[in-house]
Amino acid sequence: MDMQTAARLVHAPQASQQALRPEGDALARYGRNMVPVDFHQSSAGPTKVFVYPFAQTKEALEGIARTDPDPHFGHKLRYVNPATGASPMPTIGAFAQLLPAGFVSAPYRCTDGTVYVCLEGEGSAEIDGQTHAFGPNDVFVAPSWHALRLHAKSRTMLFSFSDRPMQQAIGLWREEKIQ
């Protein structure tokens, strides 16, 4: 192959990337608390799943919502790499949270600034004394070491992510559950 042909192939636009496996294969192969027999995950590598269906997240949150909510978090779960139990990515942690209608959390602060997305419901986030209303599809941030108190006007589901795994890996992460 000459240089002009090679350059044309490298720069030729593609409509999409070629699928090596069918849709849902990674979830079936790595996301059911099982992995292929010859699979060896490095502790620092990202998950092979990288798909966490909302229906499964919602089912898990509703399952734990049969118990009393934690005073600081309501019902909150952490996404994990099923092969290691660590975060899906080595430097980013992701969380799902269900707040019952009328729930008001106790204040909490930590060193990781956290980005929240309201998936369902509505409420407000009180961040160091300033109140910010949120509803479906709204995004808000709780900056590092700013006290956060969540108020759920209706049953509310939140997704959040932060750099907690990175801070934990280098020994910087701290939290304070304020009474």
Automatic annotation (TrEMBL):
Annotated GO molecular function terms are: dioxygenase activity
Origin species, per record, is Noviherbaspirillum pedocola
Q: What is this protein called?
A: Gentisate 1,2-dioxygenase
- The protein's superkingdom reads Bacteria
Q: Which SUPFAM superfamilies match?
A: RmlC-like cupins
Q: Which residues cross the membrane?
A: none
Which InterPro entries does this chain map to? GDO-like, RmlC-like_jellyroll, RmlC_Cupin_sf
Segments of this protein annotated with the region Disordered: 1-20
